[in-house]
Specification:
- It is a single chain.
- By secondary structure, this protein is an alpha+beta fold.
- 25% of the residues lie in helices and 33% in strands.
């Protein structure tokens, strides 16, 4: 059984509604519909990876999903990825260890100014990890 959620998608200055159908168990897949593209399938080793694949496709179209998993400062832990399919992730802050209270659902809404490209998100994650002095 899959879950369907509405997500906002921003393309230029226009924000529209899209839908994602989210697998609840492996194989981890997302089915996206919106922007007049029909139904597009994305898969990954977990839901966060499938979301990255969706984001890469949207980036090619000059669009971005306005969801928490696309925020620059959000990244799942290895445990979340292996045990919960990467559905939950931490909001991270430079110099601070992530805490349980920092966990959010990657498909929750996010403000446009918090959403970044996949490359920017990966760079911030590396910078955050280095800021912990490990």
């Amino acid at each position: 059984m899959n879950e369907t959620k509405s997500i906002k998608v921003q393309q230029g200055s226009v924000t529209t509604e899209g839908r994602v159908e989210i697998s609840q168990n492996p194989p981890w897949t997302l089915a996206f519909s919106g922007l007049g593209l029909g139904n597009m399938q994305f898969s990954g080793s977990d839901l966060f990876e499938a979301l990255i694949e969706l984001r890469r496709e949207l980036e090619r179209l000059g669009a971005k999903p306005l969801c928490a998993g696309a925020r620059m400062d959000v990244f799942p832990s290895a445990m979340s990825r292996s045990m919960a399919g990467g559905r939950k992730a931490y909001v991270t802050r430079l110099g601070f260890q992530a805490r349980r209270g920092d966990i959010i659902d990657i498909f929750d809404d996010a403000a446009p100014d918090l959403v970044a490209s996949v490359t920017e998100q990966n760079a911030f994650h590396e910078k955050w990890f280095e800021s912990l002095g490990k």
